[in-house]
Amino acid sequence: MENRLKPMDAEQLREYGHKMVDFIADYYKTIENFPVLSQVEPGYLRNLLPDSAPNQPDSFQHVLDDIQAKILPGVTHWQSPNYFAYYPSNSSVAGFVGEMLSAGLNIVGFSWITSPAATELEMIVLDWLAKMLKLPEDFLSAGQGGGVIQGTASEAVLVVLLAARDKVLRRVGKDALEKLVVYASDQMHSSLQKACQIAGIHPENCRLLKATSSTNYALSPEFLSETISQDLTIGLIPFFLCATVGTTSSTAVDPLLSLGKIAKSNGMWFHVDAAYAGSACVCPEFRHYMDGVEEADSFNMNAHKWFLTNFDCSALWVKDRSALVQALSTNPEYLKNKITETMDGITTVWLGKPAMLYKKSYQVGQTF
Asked: Do both 68 and 209 map to the same domain?
């Protein structure tokens, strides 16, 4: 019985927690000494670890020693000041502390009543962030819109694409799915194509229009209008346009105002993917890159890129949250409760996916 596994008590948590903080602090203190790109060969770790899980617990210090000797050599150090690949993904001490608090509280916020602070804090912080970005008031939770935290921009574009799809199908009939057409620049992130596949949009109806150096690799409004006209002529239904503020391949910025007007005149949902560069627009000198966002139905940016917030934290705003509710919500018995049913829809779960990422709201708030 003496070797029986026992849960860690409060004092052990205090001791080991301090050791883990020291370990991470030392890592950041010496991070510039590591090669940015891991130097290991594929399969290196299998030769260093046992074939099966141990039957007995190991000492905490030995675990830390293993991490130092076996894990860190296989890490590509995204937080290194010498890291310039892909996109910025810089965390911070505030983000790390927020993760600790989140892990300790371990909230499961699948409805307002399961943890009211989770839903309400997320709404408040997303409103703060919207105001920092000078988003139109339609995107604030006091009206018909609001913000919600997604994991990634890929999730965000899928969510709004599904909302847009269901909205148009309610109007034209569900049998028209094969006629729906999506438009974006060929510089758009590949997540749009994946979202189309998941949403049942025919691959040939995902129009990724060629962008050239003549427009600084931004989507041409004239080319878009021409393509939409051609599609209408053959009986297709344009329903979704995605513009980008900071494309992955060239950091191009699409002309939001012109594109938004084209979308509106054709009754299309207009989504702005500012995953890469949207965070820079909190700076007044860069805000003009978002001019025209007032025409958008939805807007997304990644706080986990330039906002020193731990991955993953992608902020999505919509002008009309009812479109998301109708497309994505379910109402099983275990989610029903009197408080949620009697409260204003603003403070209930309006995405079908709960306002559950309390930790990310905490981090965003702390980062600022």
From this structure: no
What is the CATH number for 149?
3.40.640.10
d(CA 92, CA 310): 7
Same domain, 50 and 185: no
CB 211 within 8 A of CB 255: no
Contact 358, 122 (CB under 8 A): yes
Q: Using CA atoms, how far apart are residues 11 and 251, in angstroms rounded to an integer?
A: 50
- pLDDT per residue as tens digits for the range 60-82: 999 999 999 999 999 999 989 89
CA 188 – CA 18 distance, rounded (Å) = 44
pTM metric for this prediction: 0.86
E strands, 29-174, are 146-150
What is the spatial order of strands in the sheet that 237-244 belongs to?
A: 146-150, 314-318, 298-302, 269-273, 237-244, 180-185, 206-209
Taking only the tens place, the pLDDT of each residue in 221-253 is 999 999 999 999 999 999 999 999 999 888 999
DSSP label at residue 172: H
Which residues does residue 314 pair with via DSSP β-bridges, in sequence order? Answer: 150, 302
CATH number of the domain encompassing residue 71: 1.20.1340.10
Q: Which amino acid is at 1?
A: M
Residue 158 near residue 165 (C-beta atoms within 8 A): no
The domain tally of the chain equals 2
Tell me which residue range forms the domain holding 34.
Answer: 10-85
Burial 214-234 (b: 16+ CB within 10 A, else e): ebebbbbbebbbebbeebeee
pLDDT the model gives residue 114: 83
